[in-house]
Design brief:
By secondary structure, this protein is an alpha/beta fold. The chain has one domain: TIM Barrel (Alpha-Beta Barrel), CATH 3.20.20.140. It is 44% helix and 15% strand. The chain has 12 helices and 8 strands. An 8-stranded parallel beta sheet has the order 1-2-3-4-5-6-7-8. The longest helix has 16 residues. It is globular and about 50 Å long. The model has no long low-confidence stretch (mean pLDDT 90).
Length: 264
């Protein structure tokens, strides 16, 4: 059970040894307009420093210099076995029918979920090209992490998808993004549908945002995500540890919900 001493140790720079934290939203590869992205070696060292015992990584095609991107993820999770697990990146215009691809990576035992980025893919989240993916994700029990940032492209469609694919878990990455209307719409959907969750990954840090979300949808519907290696891991973690929420609520966000969705 987490107690207040965890927060004090974090504040004092003493590390968080013995504490279980799991990161549901991470990346490998570089974004060219973000020069401070860490490499995977540095990222995994930071994970150990902050007691993040497991992280889920994906590699988005647009920002990847190696092809194919999911093989790059596979090589990485094999190299960093025990601390990194994979998410299968999918684009209907690039990969076509996802069934064979998902089965291929799922059978390795090293992938725990699926990642889609409607904005980069150029197709809204409810485009029919994604539907076979959502179906097979439900069949294999692989949560689908969606980049959510705009109302009509990738936020409001999740309500439709949650109803059409009740056996599939959807995680709304970035909790709808930086705009208040998008944030509120995301929380409304998370609250309404049992199979929809949100994560904390966001480079904007507004005061009271996490506390508001916990009060509206409960801590059992929110997962910790750092967005590393693109965003700051310690800053993302501090937003949870410094939040005015109970230790039990922190536990749900930092690892219990992850274990429930992705397996302990």
């Amino acid at each position: 059970m987490m107690d207040i001493s965890v927060i004090e140790r974090f504040k004092n720079g003493e590390g968080l040894k013995g504490i279980c934290i799991k990161d549901s939203h991470m990346h490998i590869g570089r974004i060219y307009h973000l020069p401070f992205c860490s490499d995977t070696d540095t990222m995994t060292k930071d994970m150990k420093r902050f007691s993040i015992t497991e992280g889920l990584i994906s590699c988005i095609l647009k920002y990847n210099e190696r092809e194919p991107e999911n093989d790059y993820v596979l090589q990485t999770v094999q190299k960093y076995a025990g601390i990194l697990k994979g998410q299968i990146f999918f684009s209907p215009t690039v990969h076509g029918d996802p069934r064979e691809m998902v089965e291929k990576y799922f059978k390795t035992g090293l992938f725990r979920g699926i990642k889609i980025h409607p904005e980069i893919n150029g197709l809204p989240a409810d485009h029919k090209g994604y539907y076979p993916l959502y179906e097979i994700a439900g069949f294999y029990g692989l949560p689908v992490l969606l980049h959510t940032w705009t109302l009509n492209n990738d936020i409001l469609p999740v309500a439709k998808l949650a109803a059409e694919f009740p056996d599939t878990v959807f995680v709304m990455g970035h909790m709808g993004g930086k705009e208040q209307a998008c944030f509120e719409a995301c929380l409304d959907i998370v609250k309404k549908y049992d199979n929809v969750y949100a994560d904390t990954a966001l480079s904007w840090s507004y005061p009271g945002r996490l506390e508001y979300a916990v009060n509206k949808v409960s801590s059992e519907k929110i997962l910790f995500g750092s967005d590393a290696n693109w965003n700051s891991m310690p800053a993302s973690l501090a937003r949870v540890l410094y939040a005015k929420i109970s230790c039990s609520q922190m536990e749900h966000i930092l690892y219990r919900n992850y274990d429930r969705l992705y397996g302990a």
